[in-house]
Write a structure and sequence with these properties.
This protein is an alpha/beta fold. The two termini are 20 Å apart. The chain has a six-stranded parallel beta sheet, with helices on both faces.
């Protein structure tokens, strides 16, 4: 019997691309003001460069803008990006399913990778922390404990007081979200997000989730939750 549902955050509950847009906006404003450049032009340039490659976007943007810079300035831009309060929101299906799950007896958790200040700012803006009994930001445990390390799954299991086979983990990144969870006997579900950052990754079977969905509301039928807990959906 399923007693707990645990979610990834980026590209599961929120759009990672929406976060990137938010971060590029504040970095573009910083560069534009400091070098008296058109902020919209700087922002558009960053997005174009990111679509070509996600590597060293700030360095490449400054090169295109003929701006002299050093490593300290790049670090400054990275910190501005990581530490900003983002303009993001839950996916529509995430908002609906969470509102429904809040009213049930199921225990809810989040396991999310990413720099701790970045992930905590996302959670603060979304104002959802109070609705989860366990939130693990793996960077707060140490960089070595980012997924696929098992420590976060163990911590959620202990905090929620459930067995691994009573847990569901929903994520989007087959390179790290499911391989350890599968080995532990957790029920794993891949959410296929259109334009998700990791949607085109292909891995061997052990990395793949046991089930796939295109909308989070599908978990109600998949896990037989609506028949047990109500008929709202």
């Amino acid at each position: 019997m399923i007693k707990a549902i645990v979610f990834d955050l980026d590209d599961t509950l929120i759009s990672e691309r929406e976060y990137i847009r938010s971060g590029f906006k504040v970095v573009s404003e910083k560069i534009g003001k400091e070098y008296k450049l058109d902020i919209n032009h700087v922002n558009e340039l960053m997005h174009n460069l990111f679509n070509e490659s996600s590597k060293n976007v700030f360095n490449r943007a400054l090169d295109k803008l003929n701006i002299q810079y050093d490593l300290n300035y790049i670090k400054e831009l990275i910190n501005t990006y990581r530490e900003h309060m983002p303009d993001i929101r839950l996916y529509d299906d995430a908002k609906e399913i969470l509102e429904y799950l809040y009213s049930t007896d199921l225990k809810l958790g989040i396991i999310t990778d990413g720099y701790k200040i970045t992930q905590r700012n996302k959670l603060k803006v979304l104002n959802i922390e109070k609705n989860f009994e366990c939130i693990v930001v793996t960077d707060e445990l140490g960089r070595e404990y980012w997924k696929p390390h098992r420590k976060s799954y163990d911590l959620v299991k202990e905090t929620l007081g459930v067995e691994f086979n009573e847990m569901v983990y929903i994520g989007d990144n087959v390179s790290k979200d499911f391989v350890t969870a599968n080995k532990l006997g957790i029920n794993t579900i891949l959410i296929n997000r259109e334009n998700g950052i990791y949607s085109s990754i292909y891995k061997e079977d052990e990395y793949n989730a046991k089930n796939e969905i295109n909308n989070l509301k599908e978990i109600l039928e998949l896990l037989n939750i609506n028949k047990v807990l109500g008929e709202k959906y």
